[in-house]
Amino acid sequence: MAMKMVLADPNTGKSYKIDIDAAKEKTIYGKAIGMEMDAGFVGLAGYTLKITGGCDKSGFVMKGDLPGPAKRRILGATGVGFSPKINGQRKRKFIRGNEISADTAQINAKLVGYGDKKIEKLLGLEPEEEPVAEAPTTEEVAAAEE
Fold it and tell me: What is the pTM of this model?
């Protein structure tokens, strides 16, 4: 199962889903939530991104203040992974640490530094412009009819 990245652009409000190949996955192992890094490994040369979260293959969310890549069972009152229904409620939940590892399935990130080219063009989402064919002149039409 390949790792995915959901990259948000705060200036435009758009988000982009990017698949990361297995060879490039290893370059981001050990990075943690809150770190800023060059986005060249996903094909966005000149851009800088900040890791904001993610989840593992089982669906457990990553928590920014829990160190390491391990999955732990913590007592949560509020925040990532638990929303209390009653005032003062606490519950023990499984939460993944803030470090990216081989078990991570999705990484959430946002752009903090911008490059020269547009994101759509770098990711190949912008359609290629085809040259517009000019209409034949009346002389060309007359010559073709003869």
Answer: 0.81
